[in-house]
Amino acid sequence: MRRFMRFVGASLWVSVRGRPAYYAWLGFLLVLVAIGVHAYAEQYEYGLITTSMRDPVSWGFYIGNFTFLVGVAAAAVVLVIPAYLYHWKPIKEIALIGELLAIAAIIMCIMFVTVDVGSPLRVWHMVPFFGSPNFPRSLLAWDVVVLSGYLGLNVLIATHILFRSYQNRHYSKRFAVPLIMASIPAAVAIHTVTAFLFSGLPARSYWNAAILAPRFLTSAFCSGPAIILVLLQILRRTTRLKVADEALFKIAELMAYAMFINLFLFGAEIFRDYYSATHHVMHYEFLFGRGNYGDSSIAPYAWFALFASITAFLLFLIPKTRKNLITLNIGAVLIYAGVYIEKGVALVIPGFAPSTLGEIYEYAPSSIELRVSMGIFAFGAILFTLMVNVATAFLFKNPELQDNHDSDEVVGPGSRGG
Amino acid sequence: MKKLPLYPSEPVQTGESRRGFLKMMAQAAGITLLASCDAETRERFFQQNFRELSPAQLRRAIARMERDYKDQYGADVRVGAEPAIDGVIFAYALDLSRCIGCRRCVHACVWENNLSRDPEIHYITVLEMEKRHGVDLHHADAYYEADQVPREGHFYFPVACQQCDHSPCEKVCPVGATWKEPDGVVVIDYDWCIGCRYCMAACPYGARHFNWATPTIPKGELNPDTHILGNRPRPKGVVEKCHFCLQRTRNGRYPACLEVCPVGARKFGNLLDPDSEIRQVIDTKRIFVFKEELDTQPKFFYFYEA
Fold it and tell me: Are A352 and B140 within 8 A, CB to CB?
């Protein structure tokens, strides 16, 4: 316990140490957080009237961001599978980064839901024993359970691995492997439950599709790794983390397959709606600005997202462009943008437009919504930066931090146990 | 002012002792946390779900509400908690061939139920539909402005909460803040709702409305005769909707929208009473329910006289 406290102390100390550029980056993010907090104070004071949401479109940008980030959190852990179970070395540090990203993403998810509720002081009503969660009937109650479980799992795994490397020891297989195994179905679970949150509503035909959960998973397997691809290239420049190009190309290849399935499922849905040509097609018409909805304000985003996803798929499919860092990065950014629009705008808004009584309310996030969301993303970035700083320091043996007194097994960075 | 007896409509068993113990511990921890606050703030914050309130807690909560409303609106408000009457299930029927789309019901409801004037909340949405298309939401206009109604070639389709038996809103609420009362009315505990608006996404009828800002009711216009699950003033950040005027109907009166209707298009009564007007309508008219394919089993019926 005393040693663990020392580890916590060392983590806190390491997390705030870095070069001037590190402080500049954190300072910049802190300014964004301050802007977000200021905007939220106004929203808290006057209510959600400060957002652009209204009765016909009762969820908007916040829930879109929440949905997107659940995907990021789920997909980050997918990289854990090859790293820990197949001992595929180049991806090992990547997996730890993925876990840290998952932690930051889940915390951002919780923040997005919290800023979206009208009476945030009452969120304890959802907590078992304190309040009266409507479990198992409400999918939102399920989401609370799986998201907090997933957060707990990842915190436990990442802390264990870092604590052990702080002590120059290999992580305990007996302790970590079952947890890592559990985190994989948990990653699938958080995204499935979040998809069911939408698809379980017969009132909204746009969401009420069995294909929604598989679509959520495939798009998440694109966007999560896209962020990791870019992050790894930044981290290998700014820290001692070594990432082989080979690992990046492998991730890109996996993303190409995921994007193919994602586009295929989307096509299947488009076919069903357009070929049947029932009233249900109105939501897709609104999304793409066709038919009676030519002036839909979200149509340009929808078309861009489609273009971005197809282009990125081709870039990652063709070996030549996949193995070129410039086209690879263009592809990663396009995938990120494509999935961000798909989850943030194209999923939530057309579900409400036309509304259940046939009304069109043109929604675009208000300045408060944009500022609060920016603040949450900045907070997540701070959290992630601090965690990565600690992780790289411990993994790469900052000489000031040696704590070898009682290590039973000394292993080099990145090596694996028997 | 006459005080009515107060009963929670559905006394809830405390459950196993482990749960009770944990709950007690949790609350003790919370109370310690809020030790710096005064007792009233604490009680307000920790007020339980309506269905778990003891009669004493309910009495205290109501006294607090009446005090609050006195401060806020300068009116002596009665907050009733009349439970559902045994052997009564309320139902509503609306004659589409009579409705002229005058929206008097909309405004009577606003006054009766203390709905916010700014931002405006209406429990009843009157849709103007085209006769040649029938009941078709693609040709429905909720914002029609007419010098004179009914307009040629149109008919009018008022929609409010359909008081579903299979209510999707109740199913999705993460905290059990909305439920179906024994008389079939779906109600909301305004002190328990967290304002997540999942119910609004789930409702097929656009019947649930959110308090995007603090509701405003001019001081002299507050209806002081209220019900705790009905028309008592709401805070910002919670969802509300039609509750069949519980403050009236549980005391033997008709809903306000029915009384004001100039053409008698609205019928209301006890579904379990074979001699009630609502049963007469169901027995003798060809009725239908809105969005039948969703199997929400509304207790709101539409019919055509002719």
Answer: no
* CB nearest A119 (choices: B30, B193, B205): B193
Residue A282 has pLDDT above 60, yes or no: yes
Amino acid found at A105: A
Give the span between the Cα atoms of A408 and A404, in whole angstroms: 9
CA distance A416 to A312: 34
Cα–Cα dist B8/B81, whole Å: 7
Single-letter amino acid, residue B57: Q
Checking if the pLDDT of B17 tops 70, the result is: no
Interface of A with B in 115-144 (CB under 8 A): 116-126, 129-134, 137-141, 144
All structural domains of chain B with their residue ranges: 17-80
Q: Is the confidence at residue A400, as pLDDT, over 70?
A: no
pTM of the model: 0.90
Which candidate, A232, A155, A188, places its Cα nearest to that of A71?
A188
Cβ neighbours of B52 in A, within 8 Å: 132
Q: Which domains does chain A have, with CATH numbers?
A: 29-252+364-401 (1.20.1630)
> What percent of chain A shows pLDDT beyond 70?
92
Predicted confidence (pLDDT) per residue in B145-185, tens digit: 988 999 999 999 999 999 999 999 999 999 999 999 999 99
Residues 6+ apart with CB under 8 A from A325: A233, A245, A248
User: What is d(CA A221, CA A259) in angstroms, rounded to the nearest whole number?
Assistant: 8
Q: Report the alpha-carbon distance of residue A184 to residue B150 in Å, rounded.
A: 61
Q: Which of A122, A203, A358 is nearest residue B202 as measured by Cβ atoms?
A: A203
Q: B127: closest CA among B150, B93, B148?
A: B150
Which has the higher per-residue pLDDT, B252 or A232?
B252
A16 Cβ under 8 Å from any chain B Cβ: no
Percent of residues, chain B, with pLDDT higher than 70: 88
Q: Evaluate the CA torsion angle A229, A232, A238, A244 in order and state its sign.
A: negative
Write the burial class of residue A181 (CB in 10 Å: 0-12 exposed, 13-18 middle, 19+ buried). Answer: middle
Tokens for B182, please give them. Answer: 């024994």
Task: Report whether A132 contacts B52 (CB < 8 A).
Answer: yes
B-contacting residues in A 212-271 (Cβ below 8 Å): none
pLDDT digits (tens, 9 = 90+) for B95-117: 999 999 999 999 999 999 999 99
